[in-house]
Recover the amino acids of this structure.
């Protein structure tokens, strides 16, 4: 949300109507007393009755207190790209000059109107966002997307001072970044525990929407643990209906005590403005990421070494699991913490350190939240029995690029619709597979059961139900022993990732 959107224009009230409007507005609160001279007077605060508005006044005072506490810790961020620009002309939209704070307008030079196009100096491109001061010695937290690719980062403090920030580190996987500024008399925000937040709690957002610094909005916690938004690799958002707009990115979301419980990161909007759906990164996640970045500019995450997938009703039933809770282990990499802990394909992970997990994204995020070398307790379900395993986490490696596999000719195998071959080294290398044993999928019948289940040429079949086939004959024998009306469970590898697939061969 570094882009800028033109602010709405104020409507001017004709001079002759101002007194009428003023009187009408005053009448909404208290009845004014009209004097003989037709002047208007208002009830003063000392004589105002609070009996009917006590709770509302207490809430208003709480909002006011939060604003007073946090505003000195909230900064406006201006990210600047100097020409020539890398990454194409459309990477960042330059805001209108009037939307840039007055202190920064000199950074946006005017282009000469009379100079030839070839001689014109291309202006700087500027984006804007918000940050929150985390320490009194100058650490500032914001979103990665606010400062990503910037050649220069300017900070405008709440008291009007301007300074330049140094990027200490950034983590695109969570969309967090840490900056450092050199300034005196900084006021650090206090951080609260986001795990204590509940749906319905009052929250206050502070930031610079559309360049309007020190803006305060209020709402409630609409939902917790939002994931699968496609905004970052690791997602666990606090959803709020507090007004969040472009420019709010990187600012604090605070509880009623003035404690920061989240960093505002994104909005869901059809038109680019506030639709009452905003997302903030919870302070629990922020704390570990920021501490890592502040230490050495990088983030090391825990790693288990498993391939996982959602557990739907059909898969749960095939493993004799009546509920749909948990995450299915589809593969365990050799020599990994998971292998050392004794995890196996087909295990269902129910919780980590006593905390329930029901989605692959949630499990991956919780593992990544731990530092490497951390021992974690896993409750798993295997063959209908609940077991406990302890894994000492490794360091999460980088992702591997997938290998493109060309489709093989259509097969003629009638029951599954698969053309199979023994897996050899050349096939594994071509398809980007890690398995050394199993069967290679050479072709898939377009309208066959395997195609309907999502199996593709280049996949490897590692298991049929609980049997590990090492030859075509062994696979066919195992297949023949399965009732024709029974759903078949296959363990399939595709480009280094394993996954359980249910194939329905019934007529």
């Amino acid at each position: 949300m570094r882009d800028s959107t033109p602010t709405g224009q104020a409507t001017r009230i004709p001079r002759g109507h101002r007194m009428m409007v003023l009187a009408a507005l005053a009448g909404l609160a208290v009845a004014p007393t009209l004097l003989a001279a037709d002047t208007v007077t208002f009830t003063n605060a000392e004589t105002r009755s609070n009996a009917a508005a006590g709770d509302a006044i207490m809430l208003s005072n709480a909002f006011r207190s939060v604003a007073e506490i946090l505003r000195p810790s909230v900064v406006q961020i201006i990210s600047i790209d100097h020409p020539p620009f890398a990454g194409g002309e459309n990477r960042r939209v330059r805001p209108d000059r009037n939307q840039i704070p007055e202190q920064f307008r000199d950074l946006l030079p005017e282009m000469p109107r009379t100079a030839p196009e070839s001689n014109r100096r291309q202006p700087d491109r500027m984006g804007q966002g918000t940050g929150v001061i985390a320490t009194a010695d100058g650490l500032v937290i914001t979103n990665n997307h606010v400062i990503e690719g910037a050649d220069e980062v300017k900070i405008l403090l709440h008291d009007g001072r301007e300074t330049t920030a140094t990027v200490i580190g950034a983590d695109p996987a969570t969309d967090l970044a840490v900056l450092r500024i050199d300034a005196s008399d900084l006021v650090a925000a206090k951080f609260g525990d986001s795990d204590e937040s509940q749906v319905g709690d009052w929250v206050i957002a502070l930031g610079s929407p559309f360049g309007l610094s020190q803006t305060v909005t209020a709402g409630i916690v609409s939902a917790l643990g939002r994931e699968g938004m496609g905004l970052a690799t690791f997602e666990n958002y606090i959803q709020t209906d507090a007004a969040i707009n472009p420019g709010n990115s990187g600012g604090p979301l605070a509880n009623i005590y003035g404690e920061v419980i989240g960093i505002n990161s994104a909005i869901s909007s059809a038109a680019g403005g506030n639709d009452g759906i905003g997302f903030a990164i919870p302070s629990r996640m922020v704390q570990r990421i920021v501490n890592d970045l502040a230490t050495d500019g990088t983030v090391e995450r825990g790693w288990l070494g498993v391939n996982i997938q959602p557990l739907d009703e059909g898969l749960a039933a095939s493993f004799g699991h009546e509920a749909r809770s948990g995450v299915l282990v589809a593969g365990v990499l050799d020599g990994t913490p998971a292998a050392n802990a004794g995890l196996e394909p087909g295990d269902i992970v129910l919780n980590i350190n006593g905390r329930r997990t029901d989605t692959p994204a949630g499990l991956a995020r919780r593992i990544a939240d731990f530092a490497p070398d951390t021992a974690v307790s896993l409750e798993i379900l295997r063959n209908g029995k609940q077991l406990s395993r302890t894994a000492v986490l490794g360091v999460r490696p980088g992702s591997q690029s997938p290998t493109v596999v060309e489709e093989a000719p259509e097969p003629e195998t009638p029951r599954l619709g698969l053309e199979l071959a023994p897996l050899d080294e050349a096939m594994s290398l071509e398809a980007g597979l890690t398995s050394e044993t199993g069967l290679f999928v050479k072709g898939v019948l377009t309208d066959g059961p395997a195609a309907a289940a999502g199996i593709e040429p280049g996949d490897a079949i590692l298991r049929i139900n609980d049997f590990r086939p090492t030859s075509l004959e062994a696979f066919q024998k195992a297949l023949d022993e399965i009732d024709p009306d029974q759903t078949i469970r296959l363990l399939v590898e595709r480009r280094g990732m394993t996954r359980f697939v249910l194939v329905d061969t019934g007529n």
